[in-house]
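Form 12-C: Joint structure prediction
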Amino acid sequence: MSNFWSIWITVLTLIVIAGCFFILRKMSQNNTGIEEGESMGHSFDGIEELNNPLPKWWSYMYYITIVFSLIYLAMYPGLGNYKGLFGWTSSNQSIGTDQGIKIDSAAALEAAKAENRLSQYDREVAHADDKYGPIFDAYLATPLEELVKNKEALKVGGRLFLQNCAQCHGSDARGSKGFPNLTDKDWLYGGELTDIKTTLMNGRNGMMPPKGGLPIEESEFKGLAEYVVKLSGGEHDAALAAQGQGSFMKGCFACHGMDATGNKFMGAPNLTDDIWLYGSSRGSIIETIQYGRAGVMPAWKDILGEEKVHVIAAYVYSLSNK
Ligand code: HEC
Ligand code: HEC
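Section 2 - Result
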């Protein structure tokens, strides 16, 4: 951070803290010229405002907060470039350069670890790796068919799921619009253990171009949607659906299949079950046809590593295979 911004932040922070202190002091004094407990002369619907002081416990709490903030700012980094009395850091960036050594390679990291120069966060990560690394190695060496019977492993997988997957698939893994439900037996890309692991390792990218990339007119959307509703067993207008079937034969089947039960190689959903990735209303079906869809499932191979993916795959499988 440049000196200017460092000073800017420091001065601003201290002014705000001092401001809190002075406002609090001012509000604690009786400078109204009215005796304590006497009426301020305001009355609202017969309720009288009295000149009562701030409760002592309340103002003391604020004084304590102010003192705490000053001690905290002295001990830890927070004021611009000031490093704090302990030299605590959350990352290795500054540690490395501080001592003229940059931690920018695996070897440098090992050296820093050996010399105990790691920041708190990295120390904790290194500690966790030492402790849990062998456990994950053992899990990875266990075939998935075995791992799904290991309650302890499934628990670990469940925790990893909450940390990494729940933001998209929901903490109960039931998904939401655009994010598939992982607890049912309906799979875009297959529900065998190896399918799930492949999905997690490499990610998936379901791609339906606008209008399926087919020569389809806007006037055909309604019929197509009606036909899709019919396929899934919904109530429909038979004549309109018949029109739609004609449009479907222009090429929707190329991805969704002749019988419209989907294609797991490209993640084209089964249109005959009543399970929807983007919603069952005619509105959302037309939206899919008109604009296409492109759901992206990130690849986890490089983010989590195969050991963790292996355990999560077992957990995901267990959700629909009790
Ligand atoms: C950024 C959002 C996001 C995150 C995070 C995410 N996913 Fe996904 N996932 C998706 C989307 C979107 C799809 C559907 C892809 C498609 O439409 O083709 C998907 C698909 C899947 C599928 C395939 C489902 C099927 O029916 O075949 C599985 C399994 C899965 N995710 C598991 C996971 C797991 C386990 C994690 C955590 C390691 C995770 N996902 C994290 C968005 C996410
Ligand atoms: C190039 C292959 C391809 C073609 C052609 C195609 N689709 Fe799709 N369709 C997909 C894929 C892949 C998805 C899933 C997109 C995603 O995962 O984000 C999808 C999704 C859908 C959905 C959403 C299903 C749900 O569960 O919410 C509907 C409806 C649909 N397609 C209907 C059609 C119709 C009607 C046509 C013909 C006009 C068509 N598709 C042509 C590949 C295709």
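Section 3 - Comments
Residues 206-209, 211-214, 216, 224, 228, 248, 251-252, 254-256, 266-269, 271, 276-278, 285, 288-289, 293-295 surround heme C (ligand 2) (CB under 6 Å). The two ends are 54 Å apart (CA to CA).
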